[in-house]
Predict the structure.
Amino acid sequence: MLIIAGLGNPGSKYAGNRHNIGFMAVDAIQRRPGFSPWSKKFKAEISEGELGGEKVLLMKPQTFMNLSGEAVGEAMRFYKLGPQNVVAIYDELDLPPGKARIKTGGGHGGHNGIKSLDAHLGKDYRRLRLGIGHPGAKELVHNHVLGDFAKVDQTWVTPLLDAVADNVEMLVRQEDSQLMNKLALAIGGKPDEDKPKAEKSPQPKPVGKSHIHQARGGAKPNIPTTGPMAEMLKKMFGSKGE
């Protein structure tokens, strides 16, 4: 079983906030066929379904962002799961808008929802981070994350969330690289475009050879057959005309 928890703040006041992109992602997944209507349990809104033959529980904690771990931890313990059975989807300031990254474990990066999950689950859960961009100055961060996405942002927000929902089975199967490629393509990027391009291996320089070695291994030189030079060459190269 897998728990997919989107992080955000409950209520219409926060619904369009950048900080709520995790809620938006699980909403997009829940709209796909096979998931139950939202109901309330574990201090969260939950929806049950099945993906790739595995039971999936979607969660939107209703405890506000700073206490997200209370809800997810309660569900994890109820189903006797470990953090390896949890995926958190949330906003990432330090990624450009629309970029996505996934990893297991790591730091919280100042994200209060992740701080709470770490406290209640441990750190070994998977994290799907969806970039919302940084406003450029620390004092602008609060208004940025709690501000709504602008209309122009919908050119990447909608395709990104649709791609998360369309390819969520890859998340279940832990096909993380393939999922990242799909999400990059959805917003007009290139697969693995942030990975350093493989550098061409420098062509090995020819090993310096002595003129004797070159003469032995290359085309037959025009060797004199008579005279003192011929006698010297015979001694050096042998009598077989090498």
About this structure: The beta strands are 2-6, 39-41, 44-51, 54-61, 86-92, 100-104, 126-131.
